Amino acid sequence: MSFADLGLSNELLQAVETAGYTEPTPIQAQTIPPVLMMKDIIGIAQTGTGKTAAFVLPMIDILGHGRRRALMPRSLILEPTRELAAQVAENFEKYGKNHDLKMALLIGGVQMGDQLKALSAGVDVLIATPGRLMDLFERGKIMLTGCELLVIDEADRMLDMGFIPDIETICSKLPANRQTLLFSATMPPVIKKLADRFLTNPKYIEVARPASNNTSIVQHKVAVPSRKKREVLRELLKTDNVTTAIIFANRKTTVRELAKSLKSYGFSAGEIHGDMDQASRNAELERFKAGEISILCASDVAARGLDVKGVSHVFNFDTPWHPDDYVHRIGRTGRGGATGRAFTFVAPEDAEAIANVEKLTGGPIPIYQLGSSEDVDVHEDKAVREEKPAREEKPKRAPRGKRPAQAETEAPEPRAAAEKREDRPARAPRRETRSEEPKREVRAETPAPAPSAPARGPARGGRRRDAEPVTRDDGSWNGPVPNFLHVSAL
Ligand code: ADP
Ligand code: MG
């Protein structure tokens, strides 16, 4: 299957070729023709499968005909976060260069002046986050009655971020006979309901996770007491052929402190999280993308869906509280056929979180055995180690009879707190949550020699993004099957 088979115009095919895509991804191959036929679409495919071009490409051809009108965008793309919105805009620029299309980006955190000017001159494509759009709409600065094509992208993330009511309102302002495309990595019931209500006879396209994806990310969990996390991280950064890495932490404070600490150890690290203003976030992303820094410490805020190619490693400095975040975090590596490596630090208090992750991904994540004891002195914190007898972390999950010595597990962060850990763009108040450092320690077992864990793939930046999941255990994610490595506990 080639792009030429999909019914796209020659100008567009040229732009696609220039951009370097040779073959459509499965979601693109299945979505583009019906979109060109003006059908409503529900497109379900995991992160990194090319959903953006699946709607951007046909939209460019559809919008290539017709005229702009002042204040009335001809199409609207809703994105959950500013970064994703900006990324979609970049796609329009890249693929629409042979077309006369005007677009405007309406996102929080940036000056509205130019956007308003663009809007009043008339745009073909309006790319917006729901909050900012609602704002503007309520102030009468925009009319959606001329909007004949609506894209709801990253619908599951919209749900996580509490945007569904806004989306419903927005949908009701658009003409009823519009074309609507909805994309999501998963299809939780709320999204299904939204689709039932606002899409007309949609074509449902679901692309299974390609088999190769299962092997393109080598996943490990590393049993490590919280106090040892930084040390273990530094060790892995030095020894695992890390070229570029994104390090995710659950809290903004942790992100900040971690970046600082890494820098003090001479690592080329930056940070991105919800407490930074948009300009600083962008600047940091750009530095990462440009290779000026090779390590990006990130909160979930800036991360989801962002596309930075070639990240060799993802580290979950904290096991994510919401299993879905795990999938999105590790999706920053192993993209586009390159093999990536994902390490998840599991402290005693993460037992429940990791169990949830493994439930979602469909199996145990192999335990990574840390290197020699010279590499990481696990015995340093004797005082703390005493605490409790280690509780084994689901022994049945530990391959080869080795198990992580897990200490007493604490209850995971209460959900309410977890939900506040990041700011919600555009509206929600931002809150700082407590900084990391747990109170318990894990008793270390003697570290065994590291199994071979060849590192792979070059890396490149990633990003992170906002907002907190609200919920959603729809079980619809048929997660990656981890590649096995080894077991051991710190
Ligand atoms: P999703 O929205 O499904 O998470 P994206 O649209 O962000 O995925 O695309 C993920 C990555 O794949 C991007 O780097 C994009 O440039 C790349 N990509 C998309 N389509 C193709 C293609 N047909 N060939 C090669 N790379 C592609
Ligand atoms: Mg996307």
Molecular structure report:
The protein has 490 residues and is of the alpha/beta class. It folds into 2 domains: 3-206, P-loop containing nucleotide triphosphate hydrolases (Rossmann fold); 217-386, P-loop containing nucleotide triphosphate hydrolases (Rossmann fold, 3-Layer(aba) Sandwich). Helices cover 33% and strands 13% of the residues. It is built from 17 helices and 15 strands. The strands form 3 sheets. It has a 7-stranded parallel β-sheet, sandwiched between helices. Strands 8-13-12-9-11-10 form a 6-stranded parallel β-sheet, sandwiched between helices. A two-stranded antiparallel sheet has the order 14-15. β3 (103-106), α5 and β4 form a beta-alpha-beta unit. The radius of gyration is 23 Å and the shape is globular. The termini are far apart. The model is unreliable at 210-214 and 373-490 (pLDDT under 50). Adenosine-5'-diphosphate is lined by residues 21, 23-25, 28, 45, 47-53, 305, 307, 309, 335-336. Residues 21, 23-25, 28, 45, 47-53, 305, 307, 309, 335-336 line the site of adenosine-5'-diphosphate (ADP).
